[in-house]
Amino acid sequence: MQRIRLRYTKRGRLRFTSHRDFQRAFERALRRAEVPMAYSAGFTPHPKVSYANAAPTGTGSEAEYLEIALTEARDPERLRLLLDESLPAGLDVVDAVEARTSGLADRLTASVWELRLEGVRPAEAEAAVAAFNAAPTVEVQRRTKNGVRTFDTRSAVAHLESLTTHGSPADRPTDRPCAILRLVVRHVTPAVRPDDVLSGLRAVADLAPPVPAAVTRLAQGLFDEETGAVTDPLAPDREAKAPEPQPAAASAAAKAPA
Amino acid sequence: MSAEATQAAESVFPQLEALLPHVQKPIQYVGGELNSTVKDWESCDVRWALMYPDAYEVGLPNQGVMILYEVLNEQQGVLAERTYSVWPDLEELMREHSVPQFTVDSHRPVGAFDVFGLSFSTELGYTNMLTALDLAGIPLEAKDRGIDDPVVLAGGHAAFNPEPIADFIDCAVIGDGEQAVLEVTAIIRAWKAEGRPGGREELLLRLARTGGVYVPGFYDVEYLPDGRIARVVPNRSGVPWRVSKHTVMDLDEWPYPKQPLVPLAETVHERMSVEIFRGCTRGCRFCQAGMITRPVRERSITGIGEMVDKGLKATGFEEVGLLSLSSADHTEIADIAKGLADRYEEDKVGLSLPSTRVDAFNIDLANELTRNGRRSGLTFAPEGGSERIRKVINKMVSEEDLIRTVATAYGNGWRQVKLYFMCGLPTETDDDVLQIADMATRVIAKGREVSGSGDIRCTVSIGGFVPKPHTPFQWAPQLSAEETDARLQKLRDKIRGDKKYGRSIGFRYHDGKPGIVEGLLSRGDRRLGAVIRAVYDDGGRFDGWREHFSYDRWMACADKALEPTGVDVDWYTTRERGYEEVLPWDHLDSGLDKEWLWEDWQDALDETEVDDCRWTPCFDCGVCPAMDTEIQVGPTGKKLLPLTVVK
What we know:
The complex is a heterodimer of chains A (258) and B (647).
Chain A: E1 2-10, H1 19-32, E2 49-52, E3 60-70, H2 76-86, E4 93-98, E5 110-118, H3 122-134, E6 139-144, E7 147-152, E8 157-163, E9 178-186, H4 194-205, E10 214-223, E11 230-231, H5 235-239, H6 248-255
Parallel strand pairs in A: 3-10
Antiparallel strand pairs in A: 1-3, 1-4, 2-3, 5-9, 5-10, 6-7, 8-9, 10-11
Helix pairs in contact in A: 3-4
Chain B: H1 3-8, H2 13-19, E1 46-55, H3 56-59, H4 63-73, E2 78-85, H5 88-96, E3 115-119, H6 126-136, E4 151-155, E5 171-172, H7 177-193, H8 199-208, E6 219-223, E7 229-234, E8 243-244, E9 272-275, E10 277-278, H9 288-292, E11 297-298, H10 301-315, E12 319-323, H11 333-344, E13 350-352, H12 363-369, E14 378-383, H13 387-393, H14 399-411, E15 416-423, H15 430-451, E16 457-464, H16 481-496, E17 505-509, H17 513-522, H18 529-537, H19 551-562, H20 569-573, E18 588-589, H21 594-605, H22 623-627
Helix pairs in contact in B: 4-7, 6-18, 10-11, 11-12, 14-15, 15-16, 18-19
Pfam family, one (chain B): Radical_SAM_N2
Organism (chain B): Streptomyces ardesiacus
Domain Radical SAM core (chain B): 266-503
């Protein structure tokens, strides 16, 4: 069995895809692309796909990860192209490596987010960010299935800054001001989401964007406490050497009970 | 097209996008489905907005819309985009922010298209049409529309009596849409190319004069003092007295949808459907679908095999439904099921056969469909509880048939059987309905006997009968909501009171109230336009949804709006019609001979059955001569060969 790890995106209007929606779409893409999937045992066999840490519905992402198990080996790059073609534009498969290490999920300890706040002046955003960073704790509330929960957002935030920008991006020219925040959040339990940080900015500085923020996950990976960097979680797989092909007898012997 | 009109067709997505974070399931509004088509606006001269007037999750899998969407988009210079009803949360925001009703394909305002085509499977979508028209900025009433407003065109089964929505639609097309939409397109194209001579009136006249497009505005309805219709008269020259339905004769020539849409959002049918035949001549007297889609036209076994193959490749679906009104009746169903099961065994593709008749069921077929070992449940529809009432409705299934069938099923590993019934059928008494409980206990007893297991279930599902136009029961009185509920209560008590079997019988029922509104709209006439309008104005939406439907609102609005007419809800629903009465849909020709329908109605009252003309002589329902068609059934004698695997 071969395991392949993929990075995919949720771009543009397809950022409104929920994780369940994506799962269905992905499994159908696997069928269309005739990927030799390994199936789970049992009454209703399912293709073996492990999803990690999906971004919330409505937020864009450049860095979602999943792992699939195949019954026959495939070239990761060819598989990536095939799946990318099979999925609707916006759900793009952008990276693929053969899994040669364990614990992809363990290497996803933080995310880098971009928050575009249309209609917010950069100076206003900067002041709010400064207030947030200066506060020892920033409590916010979120409505959950079990009622309203209060929790701290500050401790999970490793980095928050307001980027200096000059107007809006070329693809969406507008006269309105637009502030852009860069946010690095550690994956903690309970999860602190970009929305919660926005609630935090409102709590500390009354920052209230007139339109919903456009939120995009730019990267996900291992958080380096010293440098503050978020590293590519697929790098160890890429760097690990391909296992030496072992003689069939040796591997059978290794598996045999002593 | 003028610069102003082009601007009006621009995408509203930027405005919509800002609203989406605030609504439930935003994915349903963004489009981008696999196999959807976005064509260049400027290079097309006839543009259709197609609507299924219900929520996206119900509307997207609709075969009718999917077929027409593809047929139209295949034409050069023609584009079709889809639109669905928005939920009240988004409707409120769209009104607040002036975002018009939009298509999901390229988010253009519906008002910018040439045709706004709506497919009505049920009358309960009428208020949703008004919401969409209003959001689109199209005047609600046809008489108020101008030359730049789209032609509002209704189709679907409910369009066989479009009179209740006559105020709101410009025209209706009845029957199969595949060729009809192309004919309408050609007429619009020519009229536009000529510089739109004579305005909207001229376009509608050209459509009406074909004899295949009904324009309600070109007919006057005259009433008798007692409220019945005196006659329906064309008020323009060249407009025919009766409008004909459209019939596609060779389904193999129309293998649509070729590229079924695969949504990102979850919908009510998570499978690919292939229509294996159209029409039904079993002759169940309550069944409007069976009557108005005659004659039977089978798709060939090879045509079906090709559609399944191409469709699965294009979609990646894990289940194929073989669709029709009575799927086990296809002359080659055994070879189809076996051939497909052989082909897709390795690919874990499931097959399903909706609408299987008790008497057409056979265990070999059922085994082919469940090769993966899943035998969750079987569903049959005896429709009536007593032998007598089944003769009335011409559902020629005996209790012995049913018991034999379920015995085979339980003996082969099935553990659950679902039985569908109707309550309120013509001539029905309490006793006819109470016999449903006896039937269910016999099913359980037989099941326990043949399986040797106590773990046997039978679910009885029952709803109120609604008489429909173009059926032998179009003259029948509908049972009132109160009487329906009382009868269902008695049945429930009888099942619950059975100590030995009651716990193995599930009971599901729909109360009688929604059926009365459906009945009102089904057999209604133009005077109901005011009722629908009043309900809409009062906030009525999504009437097919229990949580949105309000019986009290409908009754209050009907009382008020019908007051000046002298007729009321009972007059439309629980009143029996006479032979000589002009019915509101008599000028819409479904091909069925009204004389034959009346005779069949009399036969029903006499408890006389009529056989199926596929295997007995023609009984002159009128369709074949009227439509210049004939039944088209196999067998072709061909088989499905294994597909060569290309890797």
